[in-house]
Description:
The chain is mainly α and 93 residues long. Helices cover 47% and strands 0% of the residues. The protein contains three helices and no strands.
Amino acid sequence: MQNIFQREDCDQFINRINQLEIDSQPLWSKMSVDQMLAHCNVTYEMVYDNIHVKPNVFVRLILKLLAKNAIVSEKPYARNISYSSTIYYCRRS
């Protein structure tokens, strides 16, 4: 499994991002290029910036119990899985 903190893997991710074009076809979900980039950006904003509402204690507990193992495991993500609707906000104009 690739690791974003390994230089070689990170370079591969950057190269793949640089090859994206507005009409690139999705391989893993139904998001467009702009929606996917916004999705990735919101994830970092949630960690490093204070511009998104933090989940309350109950939601954090549920996420820890139900989602954490699936998110941080070595098992690759399945294709076309659903994702948070709060992140799916970017619309083409």
